[in-house]
Amino acid sequence: MACLKQEKETNIKIFIDIYDMFPMVTRVMDYGQQTVRVARYIGQSFMITLSHANRLPVTIQYPYEKLITSERFRGRIHFEFDKCIACEVCVRVCPMDLPVVDWELETNIRKKRLLNYSIDFGICIFCGNCVEYCPTNCLSMTEEYELSTYDRHELNYNQIALGRLPIYVMVRDYLDYQIKSDYRAGFDK
Asked: The organism sits in which domain of life (predicted)?
């Protein structure tokens, strides 16, 4: 009887030991599943990284390469002095009251004569209202975006500085003219 009792106790002890080992076994299994899951996530992210490796670079090396602007880009304002009638519509529609228009009234012809026109690009928000509402189209937006200076007073452009076109616009227009004239010359032969 003592032998049976002792055998029963050892069986119970083995059962208890196995029962106590069960959480450890489940933890090992959970650890293995987590390891497989992490390896799968790392593999997926590595595959995404490799798929982006054969794409072309998007970065523009700025001083050496210039940004290609869109057709509707709002850059520096170009001003044509001869077209301006000093109506001051640009000043009224500007949210910053920015363009400074100096004019005098010529009494003999009863017209305004423009003396000075200036815009401070340090304050300008490039909204384009002045260009849109100008009745004579003497204002236009250029593709020029490099306006940085060391002195903020250099950003105050008068009518002479506003009248200058960016160099690449002049070169482009000249090349267009050359291409058109060469094209026409081909038909004249």
From this structure: Eukaryota
Digit-coded pLDDT (tens) for 8-19: 555 555 555 555
Query: Rounded to 10 degrees, what is the CA torsion of 120, 82, 74, 123?
Result: 10
Contacts of residue 80, defined as CB under 8 A and 6 or more positions apart, other chains included, come to: 138, 139, 140, 163
DSSP-derived 3-state class of residue 105 = strand
CA–CA separation, 87 and 101 (whole Å): 9
Distance CA 45, CA 61 (A): 28
Beta-ladder partners of 101: 117
Of 17, 66, 83, nearest in space to 166 by CA? 66
pTM here? 0.60
> pLDDT digits over 140-165, tens only?
999 888 888 999 999 999 999 999 88
Are residues 102 and 76 in contact, defined by beta-carbon separation less than 8 angstroms? no
Rounded CA-CA distance 147/126 in Å is 12
Sequence-distant (≥ 6) Cβ neighbours of residue 79 within 8 angstroms: 117, 119, 138, 139, 159, 162, 163
For residue 135, give every residue at least 6 positions away whose Cβ sits within 8 Å of its Cβ, in sequence order, or none: 85, 87, 89
Sign of CA dihedral 71, 76, 82, 84: positive
